[in-house]
Amino acid sequence: MNRREFIERSCMSCLAGLSLLPLINSCTTIHYSSNYTSDKNRIILKKSEFSIVKHNKPSSLKFVVIKSDKLEFPLVVYAAGDNSYTALYMQCTHQGCELSPHDTALVCPCHGAEFDTKGIVTTGPAEHHLKAFPTTSDHENIYIQL
Ligand code: FES
Questions:
Q1: How far, in Å, from the CA of 127 to the mean position of ligand 1?
Q2: Is 99 in the pocket of ligand 1 (CB under 6 A)?
Q3: What is the pLDDT of residue 105?
Q4: pTM (predicted TM-score)
Q5: How far is the CA of 133 from the centre of ligand 1 (A)?
Q6: What pLDDT, on the 0 to 100 scale, is given for residue 42?
Q7: How many CB atoms are located within 10 Å of the residue 136 CB?
């Protein structure tokens, strides 16, 4: 492959990737929870928020978003599947844009940074991981320490 072919293929790959991003974004349904309570230092989220009925069949959500008046940006809570949860602050660590949550990642609409569901940077330009809040749970609730 010569230089010209390499540049052409690279550009085509980039364009293909950019054209898929809106498609990926449009496929994700974001569930904003209203079924939570909060006290001085924590948010208490019902585990039942991760269970929905879709097309008359029970289904499980991978994440739930909480907009709390205690925080400037929303929180996303990911269910790890082993009764553990990760609560992440949805503010990009690059320049502070609000992130878009998806089943397997959070994507920044401003400059394209990506984070995994544990808040680890997977794609720059962000250099720092997301703020994660400690969580505990019992049979009914998830407790997010602010
Ligand atoms: S603000 Fe998120 S990548 Fe720049």
A1: 10
A2: no
A3: 96
A4: 0.77
A5: 21
A6: 93
A7: 12
